[in-house]
């Protein structure tokens, strides 16, 4: 699904799709892309099976998306094994949560 990420709450992600807000469970999301570039086989080869935040500068942060606040750019709160970080969405290329076959999406 292609849409605008709006929020992350207890019920999952809120997205705006074709002008309407939709709720999407976290387990049904594989990748949140901020770059517009498709995932390549090289991207999947670097994925270790746990949530990764890939920054535009190429750095990879192992952690989970915990909260979303603000707009243009959004302020993303990332929880890592050692701390909590806030990063602007304009610094993030994508958040990889699972390989598509590993989500709860039925095909």
What does this structure look like?
This protein is mostly beta strands and 107 residues long. The protein has one domain (28-102): SH3 type barrels (Roll). It is 6% helix and 45% strand. The protein has one helix at 41-46, and strands at residues 4-9, 12-17, 20-24, 31-33, 52-55, 60-62, 64-69, 75-79, 84-88, 92-96. The strands form three sheets. Strands 4-10-5-6 form a four-stranded antiparallel β-sheet, with no helix packed on it. A three-stranded antiparallel β-sheet has the order 1-2-3, with no helix packed on it. A three-stranded antiparallel β-sheet has the order 7-8-9, with no helix packed on it. A hairpin with a 5-residue loop joins strand 7 and strand 8 (75-79).
Short description:
The chain is mainly beta. It contains one helix and ten strands, in the order E-E-E-E-H-E-E-E-E-E-E.
Output the keywords.
107 residues; mainly beta; SH3 type barrels; four-stranded antiparallel sheet; three-stranded antiparallel sheet; 10 strands; 6% helix; 45% strand; globular
Please give the largest β-sheet: 4 strands, antiparallel
Content-based structural category: mainly beta
- Could you list the spans in which at least 5 consecutive residues all have pLDDT below 50? 103-107
The number of helical segments is 1
Q: Going across the major beta sheet, what is the strand order?
A: 4-10-5-6
Distance between the termini: 13 Å
Q: What is the CATH topology assignment?
A: SH3 type barrels
**What count of domains describes the coordinates?**
1
Could you tell me the mean pLDDT?
89
Note the beta-strand portion: 35-45%
The assigned CATH architecture is Roll
| Gyration radius over CA | 13 Å
Order of helices and strands: EEEEHEEEEEE
Q: Briefly, what CATH class?
A: Mainly Beta
Number of strands: 10
From the spread of the alpha carbons, the general shape counts as: globular
Question: Roughly what percent helix?
Answer: under 10%
